[in-house]
Amino acid sequence: MNKIKEGYYSAIYFLKTAAILKNERPDDVITIQFFQRENNVKLAGVNECVELIKAEAIDAASLEIYALTDGDLINAFEPVLKITGHYYQFGYLESIIDGILARQTSIATNCYRLIQVANNKPIIYMNDRNDYYYTQENDGYAASVGGISNFVTQAQLAKVNPDAEPIGTVPHALIQAFNGDLIAALHAYKKHFPTEKLVALVDYNNDVINDTLKVAKEFPDLFAVRIDTSKALVDKYFIGKEEKFKGEDIHGVNKHLIKALRQELDRHHFTNVKIIVSSGFTAKIIEDFEKEHIPVDFYGVGQSLAKLTIGFTGDAVLINGQPQAKYGRHNIESTRLQKK
Predict the structure, then answer these.
(1) pTM here?
(2) Whole-number Å distance between alpha carbons of 278 and 152
(3) pLDDT digits (tens, 9 = 90+) for 157-213
(4) CA 226 from centre of chain
């Protein structure tokens, strides 16, 4: 069974419409266009949609397909794809196309907007823990369209650079396995991965600055530390300093903690050690950090990248070359679309 051609993934009303029109209006030729409703959007998924149409439409070679290309910047109501042919040939693909465009463009745009505010600092794509694992290959591709180049799973790299290695070192589970002994956990890591850059996860004991200094003294080749403090916690650094930071948010990975950490690293002559932050970062938080010149070297971002923020609509707008569409919709001319 060809599930796509059989309509397994299509809303039933598309299948009913195709059956009716194949019998009642077999000679009519229609045009469907696809668009979304936001400005400054990074398009992704349209290349896959064109491949889908060519592979799964009925007599696809007879269809007329015009489309933009993955990576194009688009604005509200700009058509990204137009298909012309008999409805029964491709109508059942409409919602599948909407879904591909919505997911991939949302992820690409989320990543693109992070890149715009991060001052050229690397973003680590950590979306593996926030979505169904089957989506990782296409999501990684969409993230790369949005400008991301650092990934944590091989699947995310599959359609980007399958020969590349994902990045990442120590999770909390490794520290826990050594009874909370961060130094012992890192020695074990170095024993098994001696050629890799050492990145220490330093929030396990909720004592970021002291643990960072212990690690930096123990490992002269320390590349970076990562802070992943939960928003529910206040780091031990702030004990006795509550009055000084009154009115400020000192929960989780906050500006004051990172500034203090950088100052202590530099004061102890560990100026080469990088700082990686993660846990709940969004484009807005990164923008705020960068405006205040918070000394972050890498941002790890996950959940905010998984949100579907861009929705697409497919509209039938021409019939036999003449305007015909639901009220408020019309054929949108575009000189950017290319024949596929």
Answers:
(1) 0.93
(2) 13
(3) 999 999 999 998 899 999 999 999 999 999 999 999 999 999 999 999 999 999 999
(4) 20
Task: Name 275's bridge partners.
Answer: 225
- Cα 148 from Cα 107, distance rounded (Å): 11
Percent of the residues in the chain that have a pLDDT greater than 90, as a whole number: 92
Instruction: Report d(CA 109, CA 43) in Å as an integer.
Output: 7
Give every CB contact of residue 139 below 8 A, 6+ residues apart in sequence.
103, 104, 107, 127, 131, 156, 306
Sign of CA pseudo-dihedral 61, 67, 69, 71: negative
Q: Count the Cβ atoms, other than its own, within 10 Å of residue 75.
A: 12
238-295 pLDDT, tens digit per residue, is 999 988 999 899 999 999 999 999 999 999 999 999 999 999 899 999 999 999 999 9
**Strand 298-301 with 123-125, pairing:** parallel
**What are the Cα distances from residue 154, in Å, to 167, 287, 299?**
9, 29, 20
Are 339 and 66 in contact, with CB atoms under 8 Å apart? Answer: yes
What residue ranges in 62-122 does DSSP mark as E strands? 64-67, 73-74, 81-85
DSSP string, 224-251: EEEE---TT-B-GGGTT-TTTTTTS--B
CB 301 within 8 A of CB 126: yes
- 108 Ramachandran zone, left/alpha/beta (phi>0; psi -120 to 50): alpha
Q: Distance between CA 307 and CA 304 in Å, rounded?
A: 6
